[in-house]
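Z., the sequence and structure:
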Amino acid sequence: MQTNIEIHSLTGVDIKDLSALYNLSYQNYYVSINLTEEQFQKKLIMEDIDLEFSVGATVDGKLVGFLLYGIRMYDDKKTAYIGGTGVCPEKRGNKITQQMLDFSFPKLEKEGVDEIFLEVNTKNDFAINAYETCGFEKTRVLNSYKGIPVLVVNPLHEIVAFEDLSLITGEDFWDIKPTWKNEIQSIKNIIDNCQINGIYEDGILVAYKIINKNNTRIYQFGVHHDYRNRYLASVLFSDLKNKEIKMINVDDREVSTNDFIQSLGLELYDRQYEMKKTL
């Protein structure tokens, strides 16, 4: 029996229904996700999800699929980010994701969007093939870690809180630009939930970390290029002893960063591809 699927914008959708479908879609995913409605709404805010450009699929008045789009300037380009896509289990196999993607591209192009990014589990061959069919290409591998840090360093520097995010510049601290979820704009969007602290020497910020106060997820940490190889990162984490932490989307090419995280005793629990499509 043919299924009549309506593809449409998510403008005006009931957030409770969308949140429930999000959890249902990721229930048996490689890394299980289960967000409260409040957590889901914070995700939408953090990632700049725009429901006008996001896409839904409805069958007989029931929402059965979604495609969440965030839109912002990223690398000086107007960029869209797919913050989640899913179809309820009983409606899979109808190419609903493909239909939602095809529906979205002309609207995004008309809006002046240059590129679209997404992340997908490296084991999810079905989804990867579907995205490649739509013109997405793999750009990098992203690692996720969790665990309780094992710290052996004695803190010789004071770790202090600060609020001025302008002190954190890519030129001073980054080797590779953070992904959408971890970049500064995402942090600004939920700044009240974040704790930002760092280490100073002679009035200069030489190391920093940004952590979610509610779930101890670390969005960013870094050591100034001119102050590396002095155990500052280890000192920076010394206030997290005996606390379970999580880091997601660590670029696999940042060998020293991945080595340091693993030296803390954190477990690699997920790997994703970042993929990009140019419109």
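DSSP finds eight helices and twelve strands in the chain. The mean pLDDT is 94.

Let me know what you think.
H.
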